[in-house]
């Protein structure tokens, strides 16, 4: 007869022998400053390098508050609470719910938020699993204007719950730090390929612009989850940072399903000619590059987001506000201004997905790489759309085919050699 195994006996412990609510672990004080705001990180996980991502989130929140005259923020994985503090002070949020599953962080979080509101009327702290908290907010119809989920790795189980808890037309700030999977390394290993399939519904292989693929994988996963709920998402900006690495996207959640065939498809890269192309769902089984029929020359990843990574109008508002706040002057503020300007350039609708690394062009041309600005000027002169890439400093975005990029690099090299020879002749004379 079948019977369940008995659980091991647990020795009885008198309630008086141990406290029911043990006191929180004491954290050593580690004062920090960011954008003029003082806060303490204690023993929490904190990265100075992530300040740019926090800047972008605060600017977005402030723009939302200005246009909607209301701002309720849920910081689902708040760490020490610096993001929550900045939403309260800089974006003037009406209310911030700061949540971190680690109860030992409670004292540090509360201490930081008290700097914005000693009476504790504009903020609250909770210690729940992020998905559970988001689900509870949905069930209680406690919706938020902005939900910031600064998660770790390829964790995406929160996406559907977050979309249920955010207001329609509200903002969802999503994160991935899984650069290994988004880079498509060793996709034949089941445990790696399964991670991107399970988390974002995409099979990713290595491509020269893998960090942009990481952003498109993250947005594509959100597109998929939104579609299940009858919503669609619009990327307001997408941001990559090499430390971590970190992939972040600010998405606006709107009502109405997104046509699956539009901007959600498959991306290919040909190792023979170096060109990239998007394939729609109805082209599955018919993928090939026009340059050749060499088996294995076409690398395909997907399905991924193939639409724009940014909204140029929203980025322009962010840049104006950053300038108004004095964030784009000398010193550390100069970086955010340059970043936003590059993102605006990247928003040109003529530009395709992906970017081209200067080293790849030089390698195909078999010459030394010219200055990046020289190639941009040459491309502009021939009528191609161009921009720098905020993702890779030594890369460009352009609608110019690789073969013409190679030709222009060779011409620039010949011009440089000719100029050097003339200068040498003048010096000898």
Automatic annotation (TrEMBL):
It comes from the Eukaryota. Gene3D superfamilies: N2,N2-dimethylguanosine tRNA methyltransferase, C-terminal domain, Vaccinia Virus protein VP39. Belongs to the class I-like SAM-binding methyltransferase superfamily. Trm1 family. Its EC number is 2.1.1.216. Residues 13-33 are annotated as: Disordered. PANTHER family: N 2 ,N 2 -DIMETHYLGUANOSINE TRNA METHYLTRANSFERASE, TRNA (GUANINE(26)-N(2))-DIMETHYLTRANSFERASE. PROSITE patterns: SAM_MT_TRM1. It is an enzyme of class 2 (transferase). The lineage of its organism: Eukaryota, Viridiplantae, Streptophyta, Embryophyta, Tracheophyta. It comes from Rehmannia glutinosa. Keywords: Methyltransferase, RNA-binding, S-adenosyl-L-methionine, Transferase, tRNA processing, tRNA-binding. This is tRNA (guanine(26)-N(2))-dimethyltransferase. It catalyses: guanosine(26) in tRNA + 2 S-adenosyl-L-methionine = N(2)-dimethylguanosine(26) in tRNA + 2 S-adenosyl-L-homocysteine + 2 H(+).
């Amino acid at each position: 007869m079948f019977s369940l195994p008995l659980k091991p006996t647990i020795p009885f412990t008198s309630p008086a022998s141990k406290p029911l609510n043990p006191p929180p672990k004491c954290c050593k004080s580690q004062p920090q400053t960011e954008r003029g705001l003082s806060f303490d990180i204690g023993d929490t996980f904190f990265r100075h390098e992530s300040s740019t991502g926090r800047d972008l989130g605060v600017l977005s929140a402030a723009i939302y508050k200005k246009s909607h005259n209301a701002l309720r923020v849920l910081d689902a994985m708040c760490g020490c609470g610096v993001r929550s503090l900045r939403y309260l002070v800089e974006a003037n949020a009406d209310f911030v719910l700061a949540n971190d599953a680690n109860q030992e962080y409670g004292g540090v979080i509360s201490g930081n938020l008290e700097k914005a509101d000693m009476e504790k009327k504009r903020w609250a702290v909770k210690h729940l699993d992020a998905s559970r908290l988001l689900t509870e907010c949905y069930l209680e119809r406690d919706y938020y204007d902005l939900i910031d989920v600064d998660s770790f790795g390829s964790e995406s189980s929160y996406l559907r719950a977050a979309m249920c808890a955010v207001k329609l037309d509200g903002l969802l700030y999503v994160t991935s730090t899984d650069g290994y999977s988004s880079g498509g390394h060793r996709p034949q290993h089941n445990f790696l390929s399964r991670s991107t399939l399970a988390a974002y519904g995409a099979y990713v292989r290595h491509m020269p612009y893998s960090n942009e693929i990481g952003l498109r994988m993250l947005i594509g996963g959100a597109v998929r989850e939104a579609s299940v709920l009858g919503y669609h998402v619009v990327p307001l900006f997408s941001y990559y940072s090499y430390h971590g690495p970190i992939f972040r996207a600010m998405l606006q959640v709107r009502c109405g399903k997104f046509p699956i065939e539009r901007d959600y498809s498959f991306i290919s890269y040909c190792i023979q000619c170096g060109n990239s192309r998007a394939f729609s769902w109805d082209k599955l089984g018919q993928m090939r590059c026009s340059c050749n029929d060499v088996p294995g020359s076409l690398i395909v990843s997907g399905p991924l987001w193939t639409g724009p990574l940014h909204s140029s109008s929203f980025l322009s508002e962010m840049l104006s506000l950053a300038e108004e706040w004095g964030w784009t002057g000398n010193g550390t503020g100069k970086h955010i201004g340059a970043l936003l300007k590059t993102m605006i350039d990247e928003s040109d609708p003529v530009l395709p997905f992906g970017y081209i690394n200067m080293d790849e062009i030089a390698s195909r041309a078999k010459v030394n790489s010219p200055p990046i600005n020289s190639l941009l000027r040459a491309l502009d002169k021939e009528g191609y759309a161009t921009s720098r890439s905020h993702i890779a400093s030594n890369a460009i975005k352009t609608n110019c085919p690789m073969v013409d990029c190679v030709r222009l690099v060779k011409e620039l090299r010949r011009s440089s050699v000719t100029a050097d020879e003339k200068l040498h002749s003048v010096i000898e004379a």
